[in-house]
Amino acid sequence: MKKSTLAEILLLLATAFAPGSICGQNVNVTTWHNDNARTGQNVQETTLTTVNVTTKTFGKLFSDPIVGQAYAQPLYVSGVQISGRGTRNVVYVATEHDQVYAFDADSVGQPLWHVSFIDPKKGITPVWTWGSACGAISPEIGITATPVIDTVSGTLYVTAETDEKGTIVQRLHGLDIATGAEKVNGPVVIQGSVNGLAFDPTVIQRTGLLLFDGNVYFAYASLCDPHPYHGWLFGYDAQNLQRPPAVFNTIPNSTKGGIWQAGGGLASGLSQSNHYQLLCF
Hints:
Elements: H1 8-13, E1 15-17, E2 58-60, E3 75-82, E4 86-94, E5 99-104, E6 113-116, E7 124-125, E8 127-128, E9 140-141, E10 148-150, E11 155-164, E12 167-176, E13 188-189, E14 193-194, E15 197-198, E16 210-212, E17 215-220, E18 232-237, E19 246-249, E20 267-270, E21 276-279
Antiparallel strand pairs: 1-2, 3-4, 4-5, 5-6, 7-11, 8-9, 10-11, 11-12, 12-13, 14-15, 16-17, 17-18, 18-19, 20-21
């Protein structure tokens, strides 16, 4: 997904029919491109057509501001019970400034909740890239990958990268979709090793997260060339974020094997034997 700048992401997401017009089906979008096969399809849509979607009836309704660029795809869950606010349809947005927002999808206003994973007074910031050789994503790197939501447990899983007084740290968070509070034992520092090669947290987590068979999967590539990089794939228990049941490295004895996928999510689907399988690439 192409990057979006301050506030632009919600201009796109708030686009809908003008008041009094027909609206599309209210369908949750909880992962990158709608499903674990990454088809991008909304197979439940039966209302919107090329006849009733026109320039006269379709357009921007409102926008809400965010801080930081949004490389991650926004997600959407309907009918979330927000304390003191009732039942709301919610849009979730994550940014490179290490921020996660929950907005009311139906009206302009302040976020229903907002969490920040930085604390500049304590020396905890996003990773600054402006002016460096690693400026493909600039001026900072925080949350680059699309999160994933488990609507059964009401948990949003997101990976965040921070600079903590010169030390780069990668963490996996599990947030309550109604409050933004940490849950399922989160956050946890992402770490692991394969054949004596330890995970280097200066790499970047670009691929969209995958919720599959009770685990949360995500992958890494380099921050930029010519950084010597390896491709890492992690799978953490979604219930408690315990040490990963799966750690894979594409080429532990070489370099240039990163899993980037231009932000696309890791995919899973049915094999010929009708058993689900994880498709790493």
